[in-house]
Amino acid sequence: MNAVEKAQVIHERLLERYGEQTERPHLEPVAELVSTILSQNTNDRNRDVAFERLRERFPTWEEVRDAPLEEIEEAIRPAGLAQTKAPRIQGALRRLSEEQGLLTLDFLEDLPLGEARDWLTSLDGVGPKTAAIVLLFAFGRPAFPVDTHIHRVSRRLGLIPSKTSREKAHELLEELLPPEIYYTFHLNLIAHGRDTCQARRPDCPPCPLLDLCPYGQEQTAP
Q1: What is the mean pLDDT of residues 44-57?
Q2: Residue 26 — pLDDT band, cuts 50, 70, 90?
Q3: Is 6 a catalytic site residue?
Q4: I need a surface site. Which of 43, 57, 128, 129 has the fewest CB within 10 A?
Q5: H helices within the chain, ranges in order?
Q6: Is the CB of residue 215 less than 8 Å from the CB of residue 156?
Q7: Is the CATH code 1.10.1670.10 the one for domain 3-22+145-220?
Q8: pTM > 0.90: yes or no
Q9: Which of 85, 129, 163, 168 is catalytic?
């Protein structure tokens, strides 16, 4: 079984466990970008609290762009690293205003995928994961985000080499997987990382991927 075939089998078994993930409404692109910056190095709940506080305090992105930095920091404090994330958010909004004249990312929809990714990653604090999340979830474009769960699980399964960096993993997994399964595979692999293939105590014996997983076989060897 080659790597492409193995990825397809993994996808099918995860479908049996977690189901097909139908695309549900996501945030508009600028909101998705801000939310994803807030999500860095924190959990979903803290991100959501910070995002809601930011929008309550500043109802428009223009207000966020022009507000005193310390007020942005205070609003997003629940997400952690507020002194880092606040200037990154304002910097992205100011860059959009300067280049587009409007606070919109809609121009990314018409750019070639590589150029859209390059523009996003040229923003301070935006790496491959944040760019891929915006492209996949806000625009439905074929980008595959790699978070800590996907990075861990895909290495354990041998889909990518064990020493692959998270940045390189984006490229390798996008080459390995057909774009039409990016959305579901992304969400199901995260679910599996949270439910079964946890960082410290993976539950290997009942895992439906055990026969495909070198790491799991090593853990369960007599």
Answers
A1: 96
A2: confident
A3: no
A4: 43
A5: 3-18, 29-39, 44-57, 61-66, 69-75, 82-100, 113-121, 128-133, 139, 148-156, 166-176, 182-195, 214-220
A6: yes
A7: yes
A8: yes
A9: 129
